[in-house]
Amino acid sequence: MASAGMANLPDLKILLAAPRGFCAGVDRAVQMVERALEKFGAPVYVRHEIVHNRRVVDSLAAKGAIFVKQLNEIPASTQQPVIFSAHGVAKSVPADAANLNLFVLDATCPLVSKVHREAERHHANGRHVILVGHAGHPEVIGTMGQLPSGAVTLIETVQDAEALNIQTDRLAFATQTTLSVDDTAAVVAVLQRRFPDIEGPYKEDICYATTNRQGAVKMIAARSDAMIVLGAPNSSNSNRLVEVAVAYGSPRASLVQNAADLDWEFMNGVLTLGLTAGASAPEELVQEVITALSERYTVTVEEIRLTDEDVTFKLPRVLNAA
Predict the structure, then answer these.
(1) Which of 13, 87, 102, 248 could be joined to 138 by an S-S link, Cβ 3.0–4.6 Å?
(2) Residue 294 lies in a domain
(3) What is the number of structural domains in the chain?
(4) Annotated active-site residue in 139, 162, 199, 302
(5) What are the tens digits of pLDDT across the range 193-228?
(6) Are both 231 and 297 inside the same structural domain?
């Protein structure tokens, strides 16, 4: 029963997108660090952020994970595990780790690994690879690093695809797994128009989780006065959710890291709020935002579900042993 004070709060309807939050690749990567800490004790070294989320990284650091930018930051004599992030790494990284005699656990998402293998297959077949992705993103660096320098050309936009000047007609394309489904389709359409013989992946590279989270946002965007996406500023899939929300009818959308970052001026005039979380944002962040909103509004929550996800990825055998 609401208190007298609570009765005066304005109403707010939250349309909660589903699926949202952790995908199977992120869940596996986080589990790998936690399981390694349980089995081998602290410290466990992690090259780069295991996933793009500050809450997740800080939580693992508190348990004994040490995050490093480069392998040479790891003590040379250590026998402790070294874990590569979910985004994947260039081939030079495991080679360097082997030279340093490091005990490596690779948390690369299997769907990113699929793109790596496709790029290798195209290269082996004598095709130059066009990669659609965001320059500087760890996943893009890792994918380009599967092949020799010059074997991959990176493009980001339709304009890039139109301007592409390649001297061979033996081409293939691959994409980053966390891109906008619609934007990528437009870029690929230009590539296929300009280069009719270009080879694509057997199955689309954009992962199921990215596609599903964007699809769920599309379902609620036009019904929302505003949308909040929980995720990190450096999270590609979270930033794409903000773009999709606006493109599909939400008057405004904002990327928020946690409840403490809520902008209450952003909420002015909002009667219906769309809410979702990127694939590397834990569900606890969503619930904390709903709790924070409940302190200022009389909140009702309606979950809008696009589909159920039942994808899981196995942990490495070394972490399953007793």
Answers:
(1) 87
(2) yes
(3) 3
(4) 139
(5) 999 999 999 889 999 999 999 999 999 999 999 999
(6) yes
